[in-house]
Prior knowledge:
Layout (H helix, E strand, L loop, with lengths): L1 H13 L3 H23 L12 E3 L2 E3 L1 H17 L3 H22 L4 E2 L3 E2 L2 H19 L6
Antiparallel strand pairs: 1-2, 3-4
Helix pairs in contact: 2-3, 2-4, 2-5, 3-4, 4-5
Amino acid sequence: MLVDRIKQFGHDVTHGSVAQMFAFVAGVLLVLAGIVGMVLNADFSTGNSIATESLLFMDVNGWSSALLLVTGAVLLVGRRNADRARKSALVVGVVYLALTVWSLFDNTVLGMVPINDMTAIVYAAIGVLGVTAGLGPDRPN
């Protein structure tokens, strides 16, 4: 029974729409990054007293980890249905593109979420991939 569920899960991931695949892969990675970020630094300070830790090459704190967790959860919840996956990928993509644009003018978002250059590049990649998946076809050819 467990083997059948695993096979069905693999079939669902590989035979879904582009948005569903993006939502699953990006959702899992964002949730994992959010969890690791919370373990590294769960500080929710704001303003000039932001404390950050480095997660590989990204600066993280409690706020940025919460952002990663929430956007990852949105993608994972939306992945089951092709239409919801497209909408969630598009919304998450637009959010991350907005954060990327914000990073051009300031190194924090509202004095809470730290954004260094590498974080901005990751956010831009998530944004472009999310918008592309959200505007892409419903089913693969």
